[in-house]
């Protein structure tokens, strides 16, 4: 297929057509480029009359006959869904095992055996009564981690496949315990939708929103490995305007800024400067003078203000565009007067009149141009404006929490906080229509505040959402706590919540241990079930044993992370280095070499969503004490391990875990 594409000659009817053909061919070659170590197929299904190989993309022979079927094609579905109990027309499923691109093994499942026989085989039962996993699937899950996240296309499980292939119209919300594959499922769903609805999605795109740069860096190879290179990935902060964050809010201040009532306050503040004019506008149109009555202009201003204040999904007019509309309305009024008097001003003359000085002055007075940063700075530093905008919405204490002592002279150096960026984005969403996407995948969504949800929802004009998260891992104090609230603020309140309960990452011993925190942090959630058990995977050690434990784990195959309270990162790294260990520290940006260092020290605040073969959790008491939701943070860090978890300083574990 590659040589066919390479051999084509880009001759179109003219230079432009030839150039377009060349660009298309380059695109095709790019999508056909092989990634080293990525085999052309990973599975086979045998139907009574044919055998089909399943792979990451279609492969055809020179005659155009399919040799490998794309995993996303409808016929591939049986590869993921068939079981002995419900063979779906298959006789056999074969999984191929590869090592560094070389075929090393295969495993057959005879789907003609009856269900009861299959499930009684000891080696087919999952760790905690979960699904029966073949040896190749277990080997894939346990394969040592290094570097970024991998795709799971060869081994997607039936409950995961249901979500991956849910119809594009359906917004889905997935509540899944740690390591159940939420992130993997969300990314594979993006790839599935891009394949199944290529035209629709390539035009307006797919967006993946993650919690921080380190996480985005960790997942950024998955979609390219699946042949999808045109997906935008960003953090919620990236959605907002590029202002430098120079300050942090106290929790009670952040709680006010994250509250959805702020949307109303900001909208009122924006429209506060809009004035119905008291004076007529006198303007020239096609060399004649006209007077447009103040009452006429006022009525246009009122209508526009109502339209700008409409809920986002029904908003037709944005604040900035309303200025041009107002100017046009004034000029059009003059034109009608001219027509009534027997003149016929042209479109061009009317447009010129709309740009004339008296009309501009009238628009500036009635509907002043605004910038988000000015508006928010005004709101924070002008108590009278704040009182007008927040009247009946925020109480006196809440208003006081927002106030700045003084308005900084330069707004570029203002003490903006992360929550302010979200508010600035809300204002920008009133000023201009944001760029929108046809599908948005939101990961770690349990931590979103109402205002962050609104920022994401605004970017979803008519499309649908895949929302992934675990309420038990919600560490942000202003997060919403209920999926119904998250989905409502995202603008898709009807979404169904689907659970994923089988944990693939964490061995049963470790998962059961961490889950003892659930009654305290998320009593309504079902306990997770581990797909496999690994005796000896959980160990408790004294604080003094840190260096010895880290050295021992680092000597094992796979990645080793030492997770500690954010404030303890430097001393912990220093202690390990002075013992001669090769240590990297994971920073916000999460660059590759930090992730593949021999021992990587991970601040607890950045551990979410990541995983490592061996995890050493240092001083749980400090992690617990570092933040109001310390128990949730501890649950996150205890559920990062694929192979082993060692708690160092186990004497400081909370009562639930001792
Ligand atoms: N069907 C599968 N086959 C092989 N590996 C899988 C499968 N499902 C999940 N995994 C692996 O399990 C690990 C956890 O997956 P993932 O990170 O998507 O879980 P998560 O639910 O997002 O976890 P967290 O709650 O910690 O964010 C990953 O290494 C992933 O590759």
TrEMBL record:
<feature type="binding site">
    <location>
        <begin position="176"/>
        <end position="183"/>
    </location>
    <ligand>
        <name>ATP</name>
    </ligand>
</feature>
<dbReference type="InterPro" id="IPR014016">
    <property type="entry name" value="UvrD-like_ATP-bd"/>
</dbReference>
<dbReference type="GO" id="GO:0003677">
    <property type="term" value="F:DNA binding"/>
</dbReference>
<keyword id="KW-0378">Hydrolase</keyword>
<dbReference type="InterPro" id="IPR027417">
    <property type="entry name" value="P-loop_NTPase"/>
</dbReference>
<dbReference type="GO" id="GO:0005829">
    <property type="term" value="C:cytosol"/>
</dbReference>
<feature type="region of interest" description="Disordered">
    <location>
        <begin position="107"/>
        <end position="132"/>
    </location>
</feature>
<dbReference type="InterPro" id="IPR000212">
    <property type="entry name" value="DNA_helicase_UvrD/REP"/>
</dbReference>
<feature type="domain" description="UvrD-like helicase ATP-binding">
    <location>
        <begin position="155"/>
        <end position="507"/>
    </location>
</feature>
<protein>
    <submittedName>
        <fullName>AAA family ATPase</fullName>
    </submittedName>
</protein>
<dbReference type="GO" id="GO:0043138">
    <property type="term" value="F:3'-5' DNA helicase activity"/>
</dbReference>
<dbReference type="GO" id="GO:0016787">
    <property type="term" value="F:hydrolase activity"/>
</dbReference>
<dbReference type="GO" id="GO:0000725">
    <property type="term" value="P:recombinational repair"/>
</dbReference>
<keyword id="KW-0547">Nucleotide-binding</keyword>
<keyword id="KW-0067">ATP-binding</keyword>
<dbReference type="GO" id="GO:0005524">
    <property type="term" value="F:ATP binding"/>
</dbReference>
<keyword id="KW-0347">Helicase</keyword>
């Amino acid at each position: 297929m590659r040589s066919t594409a390479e051999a084509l000659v880009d001759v179109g009817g003219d230079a432009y057509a030839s150039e377009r053909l060349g660009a298309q061919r380059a695109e095709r070659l790019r999508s056909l480029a092989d990634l080293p170590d990525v085999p052309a197929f990973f599975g086979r299904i045998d139907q009574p009359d044919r055998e089909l190989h399943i792979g990451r993309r279609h492969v055809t022979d020179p005659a155009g006959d399919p040799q490998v079927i794309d995993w996303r094609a409808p016929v591939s579905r049986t590869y993921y869904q068939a079981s002995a109990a419900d063979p779906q027309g298959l006789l056999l499923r074969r999984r191929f095992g590869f090592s560094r691109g070389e075929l090393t093994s295969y495993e057959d499942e005879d789907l003609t055996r009856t269900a009861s026989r299959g499930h009684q085989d000891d080696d087919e039962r999952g760790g905690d009564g979960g699904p029966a996993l073949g040896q190749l699937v277990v080997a894939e899950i346990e394969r040592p981690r290094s570097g970024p996240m991998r795709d799971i296309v060869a081994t997607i499980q039936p409950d995961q496949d249901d979500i991956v292939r849910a119809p594009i119209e359906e917004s889905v919300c997935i509540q899944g315990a740690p390591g159940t594959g939420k992130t993997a499922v969300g990314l594979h769903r993006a790839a599935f939708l891009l394949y199944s609805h290529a035209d629709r999605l390539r035009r307006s795109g797919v967006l993946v929103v993650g919690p921080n740069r380190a996480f985005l860096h960790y997942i950024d190879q998955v979609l390219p490995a699946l042949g999808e290179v045109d997906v935008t990935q960003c953090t919620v902060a990236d959605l907002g305007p590029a202002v430098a964050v120079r300050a942090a809010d106290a929790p009670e201040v952040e709680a006010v800024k994250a509250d959805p009532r702020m949307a109303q306050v900001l909208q009122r503040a924006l429209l506060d400067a809009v004035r119905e004019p008291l004076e007529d506008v006198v303007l020239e149109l096609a060399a004649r003078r006209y007077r447009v009555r103040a009452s006429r202009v006022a009525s246009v201003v009122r209508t526009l203000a109502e339209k700008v204040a409409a809920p986002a999904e029904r908003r037709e007019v944005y604040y900035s565009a309303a200025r041009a509309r107002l100017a046009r309305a004034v000029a059009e009024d003059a034109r009608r007067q001219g027509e009534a008097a027997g003149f016929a001003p042209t479109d061009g003359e009317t447009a010129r009149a709309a740009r004339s000085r008296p009309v501009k002055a009238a628009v500036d007075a009635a509907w002043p141009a605004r910038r988000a940063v000015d508006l928010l700075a005004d709101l924070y530093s002008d108590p009278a404006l704040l009182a007008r905008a927040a009247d009946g919405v925020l109480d006196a204490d809440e208003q006081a929490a927002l106030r700045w002592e003084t308005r900084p002279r330069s707004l570029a150096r203002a003490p903006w906080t992360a929550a302010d960026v979200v508010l600035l984005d809300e204002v920008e969403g009133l000023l201009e229509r944001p760029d929108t996407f046809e599908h948005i995948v939101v990961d770690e969504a349990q931590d979103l505040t109402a205002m962050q949800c609104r920022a994401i929802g605004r970017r979803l004009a008519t499309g649908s959402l895949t929302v992934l998260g675990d309420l038990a891992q919600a560490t942000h104090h202003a997060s919403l706590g209920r999926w119904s609230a998250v989905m409502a603020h995202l603008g898709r309140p009807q979404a169904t919540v689907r659970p994923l309960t089988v944990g693939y990452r964490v061995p049963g011993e470790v998962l059961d241990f961490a889950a003892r925190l659930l009654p305290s942090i998320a009593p309504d959630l079902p306990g997770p079930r581990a797909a496999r058990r690994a005796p000896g995977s959980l160990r408790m050690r004294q604080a003094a044993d840190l260096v010895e434990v880290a050295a021992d784990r680092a000597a094992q195959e796979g990645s080793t992370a030492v997770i500690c309270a954010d404030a303890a990162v430097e001393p912990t790294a220093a202690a390990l280095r002075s013992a001669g260990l090769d240590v990297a520290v994971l920073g916000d940006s999460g660059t590759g070499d930090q992730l593949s260092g021999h021992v990587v020290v991970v601040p607890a605040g950045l551990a979410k969503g990541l995983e490592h073969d061996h995890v050493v959790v240092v001083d749980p008491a400090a992690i617990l004490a570092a933040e109001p939701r310390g128990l949730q943070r501890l649950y996150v860090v205890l559920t990062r391990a694929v192979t082993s978890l060692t708690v160092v300083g186990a004497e400081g574990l909370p009562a639930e875990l001792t």
